[in-house]
Amino acid sequence: GRQVREARLAPRSAARANARLARPARAHRAHRARGCAACAQRRRPRIGRMALGGALRGTVPGLAAGPAVRAPLPPPPPTWPAGGHRGAAVGATAGSLAAGGCRAAASSASRCSVAVAAAAVGVLGSLGTAGLLRRRASRLRWLRPSSASSCVRSMRTARQVSTASIDGSWSSMERIYCINLDKRPERWAFMQGQFSRHRMPVQRWSAVDGSTLDVPKLAQVGLVAKEALPRYFLPREQKLFGTDLTDGGIGCALSHFLIWRDILQLCASGAANSKSVFLVIEDDCKIPDQFSEALVHERLSEVPDDWELVYLGGQDLLHRGHEYQVSSGVRRLYKGFRETTAYVINEAGAKACLEVCVPMYWQVDTHMNDESLREGLRPPRSHEKDYTMRPRGYCLWPPIVVQDHDMFKTDVQTVEHN
After folding, report:
1. Rounded CA separation 384/393 (Å)
2. What's the rounded mean pLDDT across residues 236-254?
3. Bridge partners, 162 (sequence order)
4. Pairing state of beta strands 175-180 and 278-282?
């Protein structure tokens, strides 16, 4: 009988509870409309405090009929699909996208911790993903705490260039870059001596120090393929020479990415155009005495007009480059060619290189030349060719510059060259 009475009284009790809740709410709104400061600061009564037990659950508005249910968590942010689309829309707005990404990252409260993020926003901004990275840049922590300050200094100067005071002609080159790590001043001194002899107006490009990067974070944001991480963490002696990712290899790749982004910005701003030629040199390049602008112009005149990238030096690892001879001293790029010691590139080549090198499964020269490995390890396709279609690349053979393996130890490979 008691349960029956409680059931009969439950609607009446609920109505009384609702009336008690409504009266202070109406009074509160009325006083607040008249500007009563005391009522403006008064807290409205909480419905939870008026709970009348299990019989009233579901009757009093706001009380849950069952256990409290948490709001669903927001969906996780989109991730870069493995081997998926890397954005083909890289038109003249690439420079503005990159600049906007850097400004968004720089406006974060922790500017130092997202210095590398800002650079990557610019790189991937040219690939149509600037919006995603701009939203994530303020949350990224790519730097290892022990070496954050050194990497921040490196990345702050990576977008700046210092021009050697040489009054050379070299008018056929829009800009000449030399990639050099801040912790390798002896290499820069070596290159300065060569540039002085050849009267080359070179701009030093501060390289990215790969040892200061958090590679798993790079994989999370899409610069490095997640499938490449197992081989990245292999012991050095088990890695495939010249192919598997290393700290130095990732830093080298990012340095080239930033230069390609700079080229796109120059062309988008009108400081250069699609016909401009850019020369990129690494700081272990040995330049022979006969090297000159006239020699480079003469050798490039034999290259087909559709070129986007031309290597001045490199290695034919598979010794099959002679099969792809197109003219006197010029060969098509193919999957067996390696090294980025020195090359000339134009706007179309910079766009193509950015597209084919992100995300990174392997070292940058593997991505640039071997189309069969750009999506990781996969079965060969019937229509694939050994030569490189994108970027439309060639190499000068015999090369007119070489990599100096004797004077400097490698910062990229796991073992020294033989």
Report:
1. 16
2. 91
3. 204
4. parallel
